[in-house]
Write a structure and sequence with these properties.
The protein is mainly alpha-helical. Helices cover 82% and strands 0% of the residues. It has helices spanning 3-17, 25-39, 47-74, 79-96, 100-115, 120-156. Helix 1 runs antiparallel to helix 6, helix 3 packs across helix 4 (79-96) and helix 5 (100-115) packs antiparallel against helix 6 (120-156). The longest helix is centred in the C-terminal third of the chain and has 37 residues, at 120-156. The protein is elongated and about 60 Å long. The protein starts with a helix and ends with a helix. 40% of the residues are buried.
Length: 157
Amino acid sequence: MSFKIISVILSSLGVLGTLVPMVPGTPLILLAALIYAIATKFTVIGWGFIISLVLMSLVAEGLDYFASVLGAKYFGASKYGLIGAIIGGILALILLGPIGILIGPLLGSIGIELIMGKNVKEAIKVGIGTIVGKFGGSLLSFIISVIMTALLLRRIF
């Protein structure tokens, strides 16, 4: 199989992976670039380009992981609610798999805010903020992955 085809397949899976929990979207795009760079002895894709993709990938992954916490904070979460969102995300991921990434931060932030004395309406608002942040982070990660893939494919073709 051609290294161009492998790179196209991996980068396409990477873009889709940004929309599916627990699939390493932008790292797959980075892997596609590395494979093509090695296959062409870094004549088409150089280290500067690889480093720029690494930086974009780190930003995308960071946004994806921390956006739910930022969303919760924007919607009024206390520091305990933020901790609840993080712990809820981790526990739900372990117990429920990929779907836990969505449910855990929501339930964790709402549960802790209720325990800390917020009324149900305020706690649910924080939980909604957690989900809004998560979707916002996923959207930004998706956009970055599309940019990464477009830049890669432009180099390859």
